[in-house]
Amino acid sequence: MSEFLQQLLNGLSLGAIYALIALGYTMVYGVLRFINFAHSDVFMVGAFIGYYLGKLVPEGTLWGGLLVLSGAMIGCALLGMFIERVVYRPLRHGPTLNVLITAIGVSLLLEYTGQIVFGAAPRTFPQIFPTANYHVGSLTISSNQVFVIGVAILLMIALQLIVFKTKIGTAMRAVSLNPKAAQLVGVNNNVVISFTFGLGSALAAAGGILYAMNYPSIDPLMGVMPGLKAFVAAILGGIGNIPGAALGGLLLGTVETFIGGSQFSTYKDAIAFAILIVILLFKPAGLLGKFTIEKV
Amino acid sequence: MIAPRLHVLRYLRLVKNAGFRFAAALAAAPCASVAAAAAAPEPIKIGVYASLTGKEAVWGQSAEKATRLAVDDVNAGGGVLGRPLLAIIEDNQSKPGESVTAVRKLISRDKVIAILGEASSGRSLEAAPICQQARIPMISGGSNPKVTQVGNFIFRTHFIDPFQGTVMSRFAREKLGAKRLALLTEVTNAYAVGLAKYFSADAAAHQTPIVIEQKYSAGERDFKAQLTAIKAANVDAIFVPGYYTEAGLIVAQARELGLNLPVLGGDGWEGPQLLAIGGPALRDTYYCNNFSSESDVPETRRFIARYQARFQSMPGGTAADAYDAVLMLTDAIKRAGSTEPEKIRAALATTGGLRGVGGPLNVDANRDQLKPAYILGYNSGDYHLVQVIQP
């Protein structure tokens, strides 16, 4: 039983990070109907900004850690908006496939520029937050795990509030529903799309920092696997659906951890992805997604 | 060198006498370099492939430094057969597949007479068939026995995994008193799979069975699932055959889960990243290496002093292997009296009694080495020598 609970905790803390990255995929898809493949590399840049900022503040302090976290989120928000402005906006009225291929190009550009700027060798991420281990019965909970789950929940609640309770959130939903109609009623689509990219990238940066805190070895290709998993999580939950992305991330992280702890650990990705296929066979729009008919 | 210089002077005087002062300044430079090139003997080209960047960059970079040190030493002593050595170094980015490209380029374009590299058995196994096919001798720093089994052109400077696995299993049994063992193996790595096999064979033969085996792939970062399963299996020690980045993460996560058992590893653990990631969590961890900076062998001490003086860093086992590979090769070229790959191969096969910086170099019938193993244990910030085990 204690092994089960421990694995559940491990799975949830991994899943929370997937969920944070998945939110970025899902938000951009919701507004623009395309998959921003560069998202997983913004996640990587977030971890590296954290690495450099972490050297400037004293290690293991709460305020220093929060400063690093917010610095990385702001840095990545700017990067996300910059990518959208320079690369995606000029292509917005072209075929979706062009934007998709460009996104892959931006992803590779970030990865290999990262190898030149940061170096290809892995770096050790500093302990930016104070750490401790708590023992509850036979369960061992590290402060990092609690922190990851806590921050992820806080950010998701904040996101939900932004999308449903603010003016810009309403505008985001309007653009998502019908961009032309939104423009007709006075929504500035460019501002909304920029904001969406900024918000998604900031969440990716938070994910990057949390990931690096738990697994303190970072390199320019670190985003590839978590990015792919988060993409799957977004689809699993129903792409374009924000609670769906969170659910998909938590589910995928938990399934992966449980299989990783069994004797089938080498097949953990295969089994996790097989589950995805089965779910999509029965629920083609994902767990929480609604199937919409494409208007021709 | 005197003759060409005189020749240049005479040429200059000739030009001056003719009154072409301006032309002389233009003509002198190219003329001098042509004359020098004609006089210097053609260098003997050796090819080196190493992981200069990527996950195992630490090994490749220290191997590169040690190779340069060794080549400069040979050249300072007059070279081999009166010719200087020239090392051409290629990077494989620590990636599978890249070693093949690098080695093909070294053999076909640079026309090297031998290939040196590399510390990883997996990548050595990729390059070895290319060298064997091209009939170019290769000296690897890998420990997996399959590397030299590729063919009679493949040699090594390192001890082999059956020895290393036995040493660590014995250490767990005799020094740590472990009765029940756990394995956490990197399944995407030929070295780790081989080492795990030899470790468990020895453990099973001595009634200290492996009660649980968990697996991971290269580049994974989350090991909590596997470690939680190991924790539930109630073992006395964990053996982690793998590379240093993952080893550091594994030990750190094990301690986070309250798993305060001895963790053992092989020579793949060597790297400063291990200390940086693991930190104080590394207490009660041990690994086996072919090299110790605390060894009292005079060749090793001298090598460490010179490496430190030149590069301001501590050499590791991969540096010693890279230095010894150059040593083995130059010794073979001297004894062969030729730079023909076939003759070098024959000479390499009879290498014996050579005193390398990482221990004695004796090539056996399987083209492997018998060298002492150093068991290092973590103590207050760094790894220190715990035990030396002779083959």
The biggest chain-chain interface is:
A-B, 36 and 32 residues
Q: Share of helix among residues of chain B?
A: 40-55%
Question: Sheet with the most strands of chain A?
Answer: 2 strands, antiparallel
Are there runs of chain A of 5+ residues with pLDDT below 50, and where?
none
Oligomer: heterodimer
Strand order, sheet with most strands of chain A: 1-4
Task: Offer a quick outline of the entry.
The complex is a heterodimer of chains A (296) and B (391). Chain A is built from eleven helices and four strands.
What does this structure look like?
The complex is a heterodimer of chains A (296) and B (391). Chain A is mostly helical. Chain A contains 11 helices and 4 strands. Chain A has helices spanning 2-32, 39-56, 62-88, 96-117, 143-165, 167-177, 179-184, 189-214, 224-237, 242-260, 268-282, and strands at residues 123-124, 133-136, 139-142, 217-218. In chain A, strands 1-4 form a two-stranded antiparallel sheet. A two-stranded antiparallel ribbon of chain A has the order 2-3. In chain A, helix 2 (39-56) packs antiparallel against helix 3, helix 2 (39-56) packs parallel to helix 4 (96-117) and helix 10 (242-260) runs antiparallel to helix 11 (268-282). Chain B has a 7-stranded mixed beta sheet, sandwiched between helices. A 5-stranded parallel beta sheet of chain B has the order 2-1-3-4-5, sandwiched between helices. In chain B, strands 11-12 form a two-stranded antiparallel sheet. Residues 1-36 of chain B have low confidence and may be disordered. The A-B interface holds A 2-3, 6-7, 10-11, 14, 115, 119-122, 124, 133, 135, 140, 142, 144, 211, 214-217, 219, 222, 225, 256-262, 265-266, 268 and B 53-55, 57-58, 93-94, 187, 214-217, 219, 221-222, 224-226, 228-229, 231-232, 245, 248-249, 252, 256-258, 273, 276-277.
Topology:
The complex is a heterodimer of chains A (296) and B (391).
Chain A: H1 2-32, H2 39-56, H3 62-88, H4 96-117, E1 123-124, E2 133-136, E3 139-142, H5 143-165, H6 167-177, H7 179-184, H8 189-214, E4 217-218, H9 224-237, H10 242-260, H11 268-282
Antiparallel strand pairs in A: 1-4, 2-3
Helix pairs in contact in A: 1-5, 1-8, 1-9, 1-10, 2-3, 2-4, 2-8, 2-9, 3-8, 5-6, 5-8, 6-8, 9-10, 10-11
Chain B: H1 2-18, H2 21-39, E1 44-50, H3 57-76, E2 85-91, H4 98-108, E3 114-116, H5 121-134, E4 138-140, H6 146-149, E5 154-156, H7 161-175, E6 181-186, H8 190-205, E7 210-216, H9 224-232, E8 237-240, H10 244-256, E9 263-265, H11 272-278, E10 285-289, H12 298-311, H13 317-336, H14 341-349, E11 354-356, E12 359-361, E13 373-379, E14 382-389
Parallel strand pairs in B: 1-2, 1-3, 3-4, 4-5, 6-7, 6-8, 8-9, 9-10
Antiparallel strand pairs in B: 10-13, 11-12, 13-14
